[in-house]
Amino acid sequence: MRVATAIKLDIQSGTLKPGERLVVARLATKYSADPKTVGAALLMLQRNGAAQPVSLPTGRIHWFVAIHIPAPRGSLPPATPEQGRRPPPVPVRPRVVTAGRPCPDTPDQGREQMNHVRGR
Description:
three-stranded antiparallel beta sheet; Arc Repressor Mutant, subunit A; 38% helix; alpha+beta; elongated; two-stranded antiparallel ribbon
């Protein structure tokens, strides 16, 4: 996970350019990691779309930085000049369910529900 994050940060910062070959032995030396760990990190980056494998007829795999890297999940598109600054996202309060009923929003609703359950 640490190696995958470090490689992805290098891609995002421009240290690793799109289309550049990722050599496992060099990456293992650079990040002080086992080559198998780097291979696992590249598989993670492939699932995220940041790295692309190319299989050779000899059975070896060469890795390259993806040409187009998708935006992280949950990220907002950049604001256009007409929009100005984008407002911060509004936090969503999760609904808590107890005994099959939603938790009340106000203390008075809670008292009414408890009196109803107790038969008062």
